[in-house]
Automatic annotation (TrEMBL):
Protein name as it appears in the record: Anoctamin
Chief localisation class: membrane
Domain Anoctamin dimerisation: 10-134
All residue ranges annotated as the Anoctamin transmembrane domain in the record: 154-662
Lineage: Eukaryota, Metazoa, Chordata, Craniata, Vertebrata
Length: 680
């Protein structure tokens, strides 16, 4: 314990040596210039509350800093008091560096570091302690934070608010269309006018008017407003990422991480201890441990093969689910009970089945961006495979009556009677909302169910033992890092952007989930978890690249959704060619070929084909319109996105000035034969 409570105590000379060794930054002077932007100033002048502001209570002062050098100690702020010069988190870093790189056995067998000792159960645990003067009050503070009166949210959740508001307005517009849409009224009042062909080989004929309610429900998600919302969300994603880069630069400078990756970052202690050779760093000129590429190649290939195998398993499950849906639909239609809608129940069942069947555990890591990418690729295929299938493949290769295509002898799956878009919306809600609800329940309930580990080692006869700080901290759960939190938010970002044309309410549900989860996470990290060893990072790493990839993919996905899955372009084409929407339902239906129909009965099916099953002229006109829309949509949205990228600088001007000022002050403070001056 140190003089301020349960903090690491090490000799002063050891602290100084390793502080210089791991390039810790220490303060030179307090920053007195606040960072502001033009939007905050405008809102303040208009007396409008800034809902995007992140108010942090008891914010510590900001400092100009530079790398620590023992021979320049007197030039750093607070050097007079050796007990408080290094912060508690910096002491943690130094001691962890020592413990993690110290060998305890054979280097060839990798017997290095305290982490290996814990994994081999030589030690039960190794962790820093919560500070005594804050430990007793931290749960009280988080209880205040969890108050419903506080609207504190993170940067991403704050940006979800405008997206959720616009999406909810689009949803209300869909409700209005349910009442006023001409085509919907035409379908509902058609009676027996449109006899549809069977949906499977043993199914019976059915009337189109029987899907009146589901057709109207589809208008909630398939209307002209979703086109606007798709464009809005594509530009929202680009703007969000640009402003996140600005916020990231502000935070990285405040937390002394602006040059961490380029200059200050050192190899991991375990890597240092096991590396077979060293090479000179071209930037710093220092000798650093190094693993030859040939030795790393085998590990890389092995890791990639494992991910490929897991993705193959996921795709096999997806194909199995498709066959399951097709076979079960035949069984359902054998039933003569029409009092309820078994098909709708079946669709709900298959969505839940896909959600449960593909929920798998993954390995944890905090160090390798390559591993993060592999895990994301697996989870991307895991969660998005079924929505992608419904959006872009289901119902595309069915054929037509009398000439249906088959897979393994089974007729290819067609979209439901009300179309694929409403099925896609249902799939998104089941997977996205279901995953979020279950995740939040797990985060809240599971910590309560896990036994306190200290009870296995501490035997106190007294019913209320007086535990020491390290015993009390040992009772808490192990903090496994932020990997799961990042992955959850990135997957959510994909759901609300890639498929937003099918579900305008996705940002709204994401906002509600995050507003709840940020409070559950606060409770979890502050009250339930042990204190982790602090780690520095310049930014969110490869996660930003993944978010950019998703934002570009969202533009392409929404363009094809609107063009080929939605009814927006067929409606627009019909209105343009006829002047009204009267007769639109009849326009979208074709008459089955004569060799398919039984006796005198004729039936209809969705498609633009003639009585011989060949595509009509309208089909080719509409196909040209669809492809043109995809090209125009992509180019316009991406062009506007590039303009936004160009207009919004990644680093605010105030931060650039502070960085230059800091470099100047560091140069002055560390210069030889320089008399310390009062810079300001």
């Amino acid at each position: 314990n140190g003089p301020r409570g349960p903090e690491p105590l090490a000799p002063w000379n050891v602290l100084c040596y390793y502080a210089e060794e791991i390039s810790l930054r220490v303060p030179l002077q307090v920053v007195t210039t606040p960072i502001s932007n033009w939007s905050e100033k405008i809102l303040e002048k208009l007396h409008i509350p800034n809902i995007m502001a992140q108010d942090v209570p008891n914010l510590p002062p900001d400092y100009y800093t530079c790398q620590f050098h023992t021979n320049k100690l007197e030039r750093f702020l607070g050097h007079e008091n050796k007990d408080t010069f290094f912060k508690t988190t910096q002491r943690h870093q130094i001691l962890y560096e020592i413990l993690a790189r110290t060998p305890y056995g054979s280097l060839k067998r990798g017997e290095v570091g305290i982490g290996r000792l814990v994994s081999e159960h030589v030690l039960t645990a190794a962790f820093p302690l919560h500070e005594i003067n804050k430990y007793s009050n931290r749960c009280v503070a988080v209880t205040s934070f969890l108050s419903l009166s506080l609207m504190s949210v993170g940067f991403y959740t704050g940006w979800l608010l405008p997206a959720a508001v616009v999406g909810f307005i689009i949803f209300l517009f869909g409700i209005w269309l349910m009442v006023t849409d001409v085509a919907a009224e035409e379908l509902c009042s058609s009676g027996n006018a449109f006899v549809m062909c069977p949906l499977c080989n043993i199914c019976s004929y059915w009337n189109l008017s029987s899907i009146c309610y589901t057709y109207k429900a589809g208008l909630l998600f398939d209307n002209g407003g979703t086109v606007f919302f798709s464009i809005f969300m594509s530009l929202w994603a680009v703007t969000f990422l640009e402003y996140w880069k600005r916020t990231s630069s502000i935070l990285s400078h405040r937390w002394d991480c602006s040059e961490f990756e380029e200059i200050e970052e050192r190899p991991r202690p375990e890597f240092t201890a096991l590396a077979p050779m060293t090479v000179r760093n071209p930037v710093t000129g220092a000798e650093e441990p190094y693993f030859p590429e040939t030795q790393r190649l085998s590990r890389t290939i092995t890791g990639n093969m494992v991910i490929i195998l897991m993705i193959a398993i996921v795709l096999i499950f997806l194909i199995a689910i498709i066959l399951y849906r097709t076979i079960l639909s035949i069984i359902i239609y054998r039933s003569q009970n029409r009092a309820f809608s078994p098909l709708y129940l079946f669709k709900q069942q298959q969505s839940i089945l896909h959600f449960l069947l593909l929920e798998m555990h993954r390995t944890q890591t905090k160090y390798e961006n390559a591993f993060i990418l592999k895990v994301f690729i697996f989870q991307f295929v895991n969660f998005y495979s079924s929505p992608v299938y419904i959006a872009f493949f289901k119902g595309r290769f069915v054929g037509y009556p009398g000439n249906y295509n088959t897979l393994l002898g089974i007729r290819n799956e067609d979209c439901g009677a009300s179309g694929c878009l409403i099925e896609l919306a249902q799939e998104l809600l089941v997977i996205m909302v279901g995953k979020q609800v279950i995740s939040n329940i797990q985060e809240f309930v599971l910590p309560k169910l896990k036994p306190a580990p200290s009870q296995e080692l501490i035997d106190e006869p007294d019913g209320q033992p007086d535990l020491s700080p390290w015993e009390a901290n040992y009772q808490l759960l192990v903090c496994e890092g932020l990997f799961d939190e990042y992955l959850e938010m990135v997957l959510q970002f994909g759901f609300i952007t890639i498929f937003v044309a099918a579900c305008p309410l996705a940002p709204f549900f994401a906002l509600i989930n995050n507003w709840v989860e940020v409070r559950l996470d606060a409770q979890k990290f502050v009250c339930e978890y042990r204190r982790p060893v602090v780690e520095r990072a310049q930014d969110i790493g490869i996660w930003l690249t993944i978010l950019k990839f998703i934002s570009y993919l969202a533009v392409i996905s929404n363009a094809f959704l609107i063009s080929f899955t939605s009814d927006f372009l067929p409606r627009l084409y019909y209105r343009y060619t006829t002047g009204s929407m009267r007769g639109y339902i009849n326009f979208t239906l074709s008459v089955a070929p004569a060799n398919f129909t039984q006796s005198y009965m004729t039936c209809r099916y969705r498609g633009l084909r003639d009585d011989k099953g060949q595509p009509t002229q309208d089909y080719y006109h509409l196909l040209a319109i669809r492809l043109s829309f995809v090209i125009i949509f992509e180019h316009v949205v991406l062009l506007i996105g590039r303009i936004i990228d160009w207009m919004v600088p990644d680093i605010p001007e105030e931060v650039e000035i502070k960085i230059k000022r800091e470099h100047y002050m560091a140069k002055e403070a560390l210069a030889e034969n320089q008399v310390r001056q009062n810079i300001l």
